[in-house]
Amino acid sequence: RYRIAAGSASLAGLRTAVNAGVALTLRTARFAHSGIVEAPRQLGLPQVPLAEFAIRLRAGADGSAADLATLLSANLALSG
Questions:
Q1: Are the C-beta atoms of residues 39 and 45 closer than 8 Å to each other?
Q2: Burial 10-49 (b: 16+ CB within 10 A, else e)
């Protein structure tokens, strides 16, 4: 029922295909700007399950790794 209509190794290329109207993509809400919106329910696309991510930091990791883990945790968290 679905087929791959466009592919890209970069988000910029993917965004171009979506903006041109030749593709849909499953991305987080952060990707939706510059005219990209959530697909209308009328398309009958399946519900997307919630995703869970984990950041694992090994014991004794240096300060920059800990800083990166903190930054990712703070910026990837979704509310609601």
A1: yes
A2: eeeebbebbeeeebeeeeeeeeeeeeeeeeeeeeeeeeee
Q: Looking at per-residue confidence, does 1 or 6 come out higher?
A: 6
Q: What is the pTM of this model?
A: 0.57
All structural domains of the chain with their residue ranges: 11-76
Chain segment 43-63, per-residue pLDDT in tens: 888 888 887 888 899 999 999
| Among 51, 52, 55, residue whose Cα is nearest residue 72 | 55
Sequence-distant (6+) residues with CB within 8 A of 61 are 69
